[in-house]
Specification:
Elements (H helix, E strand, L loop, with lengths): L16 E3 L2 E3 L6 E3 L24 E11 L23 E2 L1 H15 L13 E2 L6 H10 L3 E7 L7 E5 L4 E4 H7 L9 H4 L12 H7 L15 E6 L5 E4 L1 E3 L5 E3 L5 E6 L8 E6 L5 E6 L3 E6 L5 E3 L3 H11 L3 H12 L4 E8 L2 E6 L6 E2 L20 H6 L1 E2 L4 E2 L3 E3 L2 E3 L9 E4 L8 H4 L15 E3 L19 E4 L7 E11 L1 H12 L9 E2 L10 E11 L7 H15 L7 H11 L15 H9 L7 H5 L11 H5 L2
Antiparallel strand pairs: 1-2, 3-27, 4-29, 4-31, 5-25, 6-21, 7-8, 7-19, 8-18, 9-17, 10-11, 10-14, 12-13, 14-17, 15-16, 19-20, 22-23, 24-29, 25-29, 26-28, 30-31
Amino acid sequence: MPNNNHNNQSRNGSAGNNVNGQNVQVKTPYGFVPLPDNVFFPDWVDRISQDIPFSDGISGTISFNLKAQTPVFIRDNDKGSSFCKSADGRYFIPATSLKGEIESVLRIMSCGKVGKVANASFGLRDLSNSEAGRNYRDKLKKVRCGWLRQSSNSPSGYELEDWGSPYRISAEQLAEFLYTGEKDLSKLIWESDYFNDDSHRTALHKYQLADFDVNTNPITDQMFIWSVQVNNNNIVTKVFHKEDEEGYPEPDLDKGRKGVVVFTGQPSGRKKIEKNDRNGRSQIKYVGKHREFFFLKPEKPSIIYPEANVIHAFHSIHNGTVDFDKFRKGQLQKGFSIPVFYLMENGCIHSIGLTAMYKYPFLHNVYDAIPADNMDNDKRDLSDCIFGYTSNQSSLKGRVHFGHAFSIGQPSPINEAAFRMSQPRASFYPFYVKDGRNWDIAERIAGWKRYPIRGANHLLPSPNGTAQMETKAAMLPAETDFEETIHFHNLMPCELGALLSAITFHANTDTCFHNIGFGKPLGYGAMKVENLELKDRVGNPIEANDYMGAFEDLMTSFQKDWLCSPQLKELLLMARGIPDKKYASFDYLPDLKDFYKLKGANSHLDSFSRRIESEITVKSLLTKKAEGGK
């Protein structure tokens, strides 16, 4: 089991932040390994070959066992809650899962590039009374509306049809003309608890209440094209209507100004409160959003072509939301026009959103906050050299082959359990940006995200979430053993040492553990490497420490303090695990309001070593001969 009784050294680690007199503790189940100041690029990359061996090239196998320290689960493709299982009935850890973990460790240990990372953009929606909130609302006062669609005439592949300022229409007016039997839009008015269900608060659900056909182009759907009268406050004051054949009211398109009804998501619940004023007269007050939008069609709409970075930010910010993933994205792909809100700046479209108070994009994206060397696709780090790579310009076949790690014996799965796992978002800059700077002024990302090892008695419960987040898993229990064999071909001694160091955490398998599979944030999937055997191509055993020493010699030649470097120290400390008395700092924040409070306090996430107030000394594996020759 992981040894969580570290020898702590007292330090001033930050326990919390004071926000308006309240102490808000910085807590999260993950940490970050900082990026290196300089990236190591091997000078032998052009001499790597599958056919022409290095003069000191080595081929052979690495065999070892993996013992689960906590329950482990890896889904068997699309087979529900079942663990991966072979045709002959053996459970196994897929080669890709194991390779991914070892490769990520090797990249960190070898001062490598950041690796594959999406160039996400983030936005801010701040409705608070802070200065930032007031600035946000001032910007969105100038929001316009229109229709976004794909276009071959635009370099970005999209065009926007401008319809001017958006108007608002009351829920009562909508319910009067969009009555659809049991799916009654009056739910949006009278049922005060209706929006307590998150799934009811999406724009998609509102359209479903109105029996909207998602296969219909919204800009031409006759159900939502109405004629109205408006006032100077951009409010629809009257909907012109007539009776249909059955006596029900329907819009009269021969009067007034035409436009389209547009639903957007509901940020919170809505209540209608009736009370008497001082004179005893009945008054109606609404709490929460109680109007939807009406896009008034201009006589001659203009076409604007948004730039590629604006479209990228729009997709990036909205990806992962129900209304985009399950609704608007599909409409765009079908060639439909979707209703959007946008801001102009210096004669160009600055940003686009799906709601009037959309997330205003930060100035910088993820790539802007990663040093150039860490993103240089024309240079190859040690991980690329060993595992191979593919790019638009070139490719290199890897010289290491992982097999599936099959279970030993016939372990019995634990009873199926349901977990609700949320997806962390890097938009939360107090954690994901170094020093907690927001994405407007971010200079560097926090680093590689890792989940510290948790002891079997400190597994986190599944966090709260919606039914859509639910995953069922029949895990294999702790103490389950797997056996793995890796084949390697024509590796230089230092490359073989790098691979071995990544597998063993530089010969620290007694105290350091890998994280594999599902549930890493909760502590599942902690794996210990045991019984490692290194053999050459004819089966003769060879000493692993000698090759790890060659790797250490290479790295200390590149970075003199490599053994005590921040990236190696943070990696090994997280692999060693959370000390018993420090688990309180490695839970989920209990309330969404705490995230806003931490932003308001200009907080940031300390390094793992500071959070646990501990250090680590990494033992050198260099031989005396190697040390003397440096």
